[in-house]
Amino acid sequence: MTASVSPTTSAEAVTRRNVLVLSVAQALGGASGPIIISLGGIVGQMLSPAGALVTLPVTCYHMGLALGALPASFIMRHLGRRSGYLLGATLGMLSGLIATFGIISSAFLIFCLGTLIAGFYGSYVQSYRFAAADEAAGPLKARAISSVMVGGLVAAVIGPQLVIWMRDAIPGVPFAGSFISQTALAVLALPVLAFFRATRPTPGVKLESAGRPLRQIMLKPRFILAVATGIVSYGLMSFMMTAAPIAMVGCGFTVGEAALGIQWHVLGMFMPSFFTGRLITRFGKEKVMAFGLLLIAASAAVALSGIALTHFWLSLVLLGLGWNFGFIGATAMVTDCHTHEERGKVQGMNDFLIFGSVAVASFSSGTLLSTVGWEILNWAIFPIVAAVLVPLLWQARAGARPAGIA
């Protein structure tokens, strides 16, 4: 006699497998960001026609994240997450090849096109965290998001190490090999993503239209606070992380030391993911998000205290830690703001707003670094953090907890 398996048990097994699949895919796809951020400004210095454009490749990457968020949401809503993720990995393969060709041919715009397409791939990678939350229930959502983000720990090692190991792989063409490796990682992600299975049916056009209008959701105070925290956490992180490698090289440190600084930074971004979800469950989203913003302010304080290698690296680590608490908390708060039927449009709009702001931040960091300098960039962090930290602390003090959908 064969024992029956309850539907609940079966769904839980699929959910656990999906979280594992998404964690591995995050490790592979998430490595593209560190590669581009470590090298984008440096390759930009080699190829760009003007000093103010050196960070344009990194800006194009973030523009791709923003511009790809809503189309990715649309594709996954109608074709399913797995089909969308496979398409995203295909874009990742293409982006590495185009960027490599841009370096080999000394064509700055072609290189920027490659990083832009890498951003389109990144828009699918960024949605892995929401896919994990969709599969979980109640307080387990934050833990599912946190578990997937653990995959970024591997990305923190893979990306910068590939920059170091592969930068001279093609003789006479520095850094082209690093972007070839980006293509290889996307190839490896394809069979991994093929194992993803949604436990709930993908909503179609009719089901999606049954939800509230997007404008109504966007005007909710909780959604505004979640998006604002996401923008500040990710925007400031990108703002400083884009400028830091250029500033380090400008202070006499090597490209390898700058890449290792980014590696420590990305480790700081993802290492807390082992316990961030539990902290959110215990202390609440607002308190964890506020702590993240305080850490970002602390990173600026360290950067202002000196320009030794230890100052750069410690500042980058604190910046990464602050991003983790702020961004994961903000992501979990966004899931409070929509029903299952509304998830696609709300999650897509959230990422569009965040990564659109990140693109502006990364581009302006290069311009400001060349005009006002590293010190002024860090001073600018404090008022921006304060603008969001005050309402977050007010909500945390009030003990605000959503009773249902915000």
TrEMBL record:
Which Gene Ontology MF annotations are present?
Answer: transmembrane transporter activity
Q: Which domain of life is it from?
A: Bacteria
Q: Which Pfam families match?
A: MFS_1
Which residue ranges traverse the bilayer?
20-44, 50-72, 84-101, 107-124, 144-166, 172-196, 217-237, 288-307, 313-332, 352-370, 376-394
Q: Identify the keywords attached in UniProt to this record, alphabetized.
A: Membrane, Transmembrane, Transmembrane helix
- InterPro entries referenced in this protein's UniProt entry, alphabetically: MFS (IPR011701), MFS_dom (IPR020846), MFS_trans_sf (IPR036259)
Q: Which residues form the Major facilitator superfamily (MFS) profile domain?
A: 221-406
Q: Does the UniProt entry include the keyword Transmembrane?
A: yes
According to UniProt, the name of this protein is: MFS transporter
